[in-house]
Sequence to fold (251 residues):
Amino acid sequence: MTKPGFELDHVALGVARIADAAPFVAGVLGGEEHGGGPSPGFRFFQWTFAGGGRLEILEPTGPPDGFLQRFLARRGPGVHHVTFKVPGLAEAAERARAAGYDVVGFLDDDPYWKECFLHPKQAQGIVVQLAEEHPRPPDADPSSWPKIELPPRPADAPPPVRLLALRLLARDADAALRQWGALLGGEARSLEPGVVEFVYPRSPVRIVVEARPDAEEGPSRIEIACERPWPDGGHEALGTRFVRCEPPAGG
Fold:
């Protein structure tokens, strides 16, 4: 396959309440508010970080059998999906099908946002969203959406950290190369035996895959860079470990 020109746009986490996650995202990670709003069955809010990386936090709002409620009941809070912006959704979906994936949730009736998904059972333990986005006219701009009430940003909030990578575990190294490299267009670079990073043009966040035959596939941590003391570990409301690492050589 030729390189598709996909762009890794953001990492999304599912939580019970966005308001419970906001103090950590803004007050510890230093994230700056990017905006958010409603969507069928959930609400979302995004924060930006040094270098342009973004985190999106989702909370359920719909019926108790919605996708996000099922995710939280099964796994608890944590990384739910990664979103790749694509030049054309129909072509991206066909590319995925040709690679052996079942494309689910295909929606193309919105002229400004079209999307489909790769199911985590086929995509190494994480939902992969493919999205085609077009500029919205002023009357459809997200700034007109109902506001999400968040705790005030702390006056002493630290500078934003830099999001370096989403790290995942996978059982099959070759399958990881096919998915994150051949299908989604990442440039594969070996970091150490069994660990490969995938770099995407115009995307500040990388995908790092650690291959273990006995692994429970899926996200294991988010890697960050910052110049202040950092207590490596997780956060209860986010269900995710944030680990300080050295930035990669050359940026």
